[in-house]
Design brief:
Elements: E1 14-15, E2 21-22, H1 33-68, H2 76-83, H3 86-103, H4 115-121, H5 128-145, H6 149-161, H7 169-192, H8 201-236, E3 253-263, E4 268-277
Antiparallel strand pairs: 1-2, 3-4
Helix pairs in contact: 1-3, 1-7, 2-5, 4-8, 5-7, 5-8, 7-8
Domain DH: 37-221
Keywords: Cytoplasm, Guanine-nucleotide releasing factor
Subcellular location: Cytoplasm
């Protein structure tokens, strides 16, 4: 975060003649350093949100709209793989930024109460889970298409037409993944500069926990999907599989290793591979 790269000197009381604290660490109209830092964080949250909205709009209008015009180059299924549910995210973020702007106190930004906005949208932010889970597929599909020159030229023409900065499409599509991970960092910074007496303190504290939970939930869903994918691949690699699919009962491989099977009466030993799943061996 750009907000507070260095601890400001003003946080340390200055001793002046007579041993009293110098009150020069106050800003302007009785605004303390902490209030000034809170203003910086609030401004950062609002400005990055506006930048992000523009970014999403550019992707939806600059790329998706143009791609839909070219049915000869893209199927609707391909567009779903490449862009995931980014249009849903755009709609959600537009409402979220309006909510933030309503709570923004232009005259005294440090008095803004934005914590409630994050609490209000915590459930809606779970749509990022679908986007994050799909993102590796989007990268693979883009990588496949950009081996063909006409797609390279087409994506570049879209970027230039929309007057977007010089980054490839896969770079633009990474932004929502980064964004949802950035909210807990911004809120932690905001909490740091919010006095416990501030009307926003409890909401910011709750919002920080809520956004950490959203990020945790997204990571957990992603991990589970990866596990399910691994099990499906593992099962398909085994010849003459008998019985029901492992995925009917289990979703996680916990441990695997060799065991020796001892057959009596000759006490013959045979090596066997065993796989322990969460609901079966």
């Amino acid at each position: 975060l750009r907000v507070n790269q260095d601890e400001p000197m003003e946080d340390y009381p200055l001793k002046v003649e007579g041993g009293k604290e110098d009150d020069s660490r106050r800003f302007g109209m009785g605004q303390t350093t902490k209030d000034q830092m809170r203003t910086n964080v609030i401004n950062e949250i609002i400005s990055t949100e506006r930048d992000y909205i523009k970014h999403l709009k550019d992707i939806c209008e600059g790329y998706i709209k143009q791609c839909r015009k070219r049915a000869d180059m893209f199927t609707e299924e391909q567009l779903k793989i490449i862009f995931g549910n980014i249009e849903d995210i755009y709609r959600c973020q537009k409402k979220f930024v309006k909510s933030l702007e309503k709570k923004f106190n232009k005259d005294h930004p440090h008095l803004s109460e934005v914590g409630s906005c994050f609490l209000e949208y915590q459930t809606e932010f779970q749509i990022y889970s679908e986007y994050c889970n799909n993102h590796p597929n989007a990268c693979m599909e883009l990588s496949r298409l950009t081996k063909v020159n006409k797609y390279v030229y087409f994506f570049e023409a879209c970027r230039l037409l929309q007057k977007m900065i010089d980054i490839s499409l896969d770079g633009f599509l990474l932004t929502p993944v980064q964004k949802i991970c950035k909210y807990p960092l911004q809120l932690a910074e905001l909490l740091k500069y919010t006095n416990p007496q501030h009307r926003d303190f409890k909401d910011v504290e709750a919002a920080l926990n809520a956004m950490k939970n959203v990020a945790r939930l997204i990571n957990e869903r992603k991990r589970r999907l990866e596990n399910i994918d691994k099990i499906a691949q593992w099962q398909s690699s085994i010849e003459d599989w008998e019985g029901e699919d492992v995925l009917v009962r289990s979703s996680e491989l916990i441990y695997s290793g060799e065991l020796a099977k001892i057959s009596h009466p000759q006490a013959k030993s045979q090596q066997r591979m065993f796989f322990l799943f969460d609901h079966q061996l």
